[in-house]
Amino acid sequence: MFRRTAATLLDEAKLTAREIADQLGHAKPSMTQDVYLGRGMASPRAAEALESLGSEGEGNSGGKSGM
Questions:
Q1: pTM, full prediction
Q2: Spatial contact of 38 and 8, defined as CB atoms under 8 Å apart
Q3: For 63, left (φ over 0), alpha (ψ -120 to 50), or beta?
Q4: Based on the number of CB atoms within 10 Å of its own CB, is 29 exposed (0-12), middle (13-18) or buried (19 or more)?
């Protein structure tokens, strides 16, 4: 549990996956990301991009023209 907490705190401090992996002694950052770092919240930028796509397609079904 301590390793997961340490990884989370380092992630929140904006260290790279490589830096966190080095601290935990992992050879591959993917191991650190897969096992110790949670998925977290969805990206606000992704949500904004999807919302803007929805507003562009208002007025027609599914956002596709000609349907």
A1: 0.56
A2: yes
A3: left
A4: middle
